[in-house]
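hiii so um. not sure if this is the right channel but i have a protein structure encoded as tokens and i wanna go backwards to a sequence. like what aa goes where. can anyone help
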């Protein structure tokens, strides 16, 4: 493992333990050259997942895209970073538990909306307005009425 401070490859593990999510290992490392400590996380490598976009293009799954969308939806809302990370972890777990090699982006969007609906109503509506591409106020109001009826 390369040291992030001095780029030396002379590092060693000084402590290992399960991470908070129990899906990865947290390792404290020490650089023998500069003496600085840093943390790494080791995760089980999963099969590469391909996302089928709306235009039928295919691209490799990228967790950061889900994080970015949820962060935008939760901007200036009372949602902590831990809650956002947990939501993205839950979405990722649901996606990978399907054990499919390809998944439509529409399914990912529906999973995210389902999780956001339980977390924060305004964030859900924000995400839905972009995801469902509301064209006018009427479609926006229809979605709000559906949410209020539940």
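sure thing!! here u go:
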């Amino acid at each position: 493992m390369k040291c992030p401070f001095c780029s030396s490859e002379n590092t060693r593990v000084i402590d290992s333990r399960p991470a908070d999510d129990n899906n990865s290992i947290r390792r404290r490392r020490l650089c023998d050259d500069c003496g600085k400590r840093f943390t790494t996380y080791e995760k089980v490598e999963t099969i590469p997942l391909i996302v089928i976009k709306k235009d039928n293009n295919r691209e490799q799954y990228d967790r950061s895209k889900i994080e970015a969308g949820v962060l935008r939806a939760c901007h200036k809302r009372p949602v902590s970073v831990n809650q956002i990370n947990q939501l993205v972890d839950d979405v990722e777990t649901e996606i990978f538990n399907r054990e499919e090699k390809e998944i439509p982006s529409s399914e990912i969007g529906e999973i995210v909306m389902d999780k956001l609906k339980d977390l924060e109503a305004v964030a859900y509506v924000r995400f839905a307005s972009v995801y469902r591409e509301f064209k006018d106020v009427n479609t926006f109001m229809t979605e709000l009425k559906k949410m209020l009826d539940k």
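oh and The CA atoms of residues 74 and 123 lie 5 Å apart.
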